[in-house]
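Model: Ready when you are.
Researcher: Fold this.
Model:
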Amino acid sequence: MARRELQEINAGSMADIAFLLLIFWLVTTTIDSDEGIKRQLPPPVPPDIDIPQAKEQNVFNVKVNFLDALLVEGEPSDILDLKDKAKNFLIATGDGIISHPVGRETVGKNREVEMITGANGKTNAAFPERLWVRKSDVMLSIAEYEAFVAASEDDSRKKNFTKVLDKWKEKLMTIELLGGDYKELPPSALISMQNDNATTYDTYLQVQNELQSAVNELRDELAIAKFGRSYKELEDLYDRNSEDKSLLDKIIAVRSVYPQRISEAEPREGSTYY
């Protein structure tokens, strides 16, 4: 009886099929990737510089304890209310340009400083008092620093004067683009966030997102009112066409009125806050 030969398996075709399946999986599958929070950290403060204490009304305090509970401006708060409270703080006494919706209310371009008494019995303003940036004052400052630059013989001093001059010219550009005088936040005004080492990462991100959304909404509202596009659209257009200086000028103008000042304090250990 003739001996039958065993059929060999064509492994080459199976390898081709496995390779095609791998390619298909790589093309069709979405791989999750964690992204960091977009922040530009300030440079370290030189040791010989004394840091002035900010006024209480110029700091919007947000604290998160180890139970993920929020304390906003000394009072327990829900994370759903955080964005509107942050917007109310950033608008402060009004930007002098347009009105902004905050929750169910509308904050006009000018409003009086509200005084409140805290748990410690002290009476302070409820929010920062914005400072007018008027064209007449800006023109005087530009003329003053142009004279300083022209008269300065020391290169270091001339460089410092030029930096200040550029800032005043930036304010003039903002006035011209926005169509008139505006009000800016005091230099010390900021949002301060402090969490606990045991705060969950999910809550941490939610708080960050709400605070960032407050800044973004105010920027969008101003940009749409003055330029017909949201702030995000202006940034996207500039990313695609970085040679268009007019787009950059509009972005700078909006940032001048609503800067992003979100500061993170050192996390605490086992904090309850309340």
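Researcher: Now this one.
Model:
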Amino acid sequence: MARIPMAKRMTEGGLKKLFSGLLGRHKPEEAEPREPELRASFEQTVIRLQQMVEERSFVDVRFPGRADSVYQSLILKVDPHERYVLIDELFPAHGQYFISPGDEVEITSVRRGIPLRFQRWVMSSSIDETDGLPAYRLALPDSVDAKQRRTHFRLSLDADSGVRLRIRGPDGDRLLCTVLNLSQSGLGFSCQGNLSERLRETPLLRNCLLTIPGQPEIACDLEVRSFEFRKQPHRHTVVGARIDNLASARQLEQYLVLTQRQQRRETVRR
């Protein structure tokens, strides 16, 4: 249940028109290029953050000087005119006691395998009148650092690959999910039904079981990075997650190498 109406989906072209006037007045300070980091323009920054709103991607919130404290939140709204980003309440909830106007926070996330980061100050905090939950308005960043860090090959899988994942459902039952892509550090999978509420409340999925054809199940934990509920062609939830506490990394590595070779042979034959 969204506390704030989901921002209207906007095409990149539409956003460019919207920001054409803003960009004429706003010129971010130039920074020295830092490879492999990319300094996105103001326009690209707003587009990227808007996409994170629509995808409901989780973000990590840190307070400089308290490196041991990491909280999770969601970006609820991006307003390029008023120049702010609205983020949801912090989880765990005790994080609310450490954040106040004027504080500087660091926001990090991963979108499509690329880590994103920006650091801004808190402009104000408010309590939503409908549910009594807090939200925080941050100054809109001029740019977002995007660093290419995916070091593991991501293998795309067909629905008939036989690779499956079992996770705990809301009732404690095992849900059987189809793995869409797989690497040594992460995976994408699809489960029937709408799991948005479950994943929003519990982004860390423990004691999952990864099934690879012809091999024993591999136990692991999953840290959910993004999810999206889709109604077509059927009601299902697509999830992106990072793999933690993998019981048999060697077993997974062997499967990835063999399957990648097989896919390459089939491509050459075509």
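Researcher: Key takeaway?
Model: The chain has a mean pLDDT of 77.
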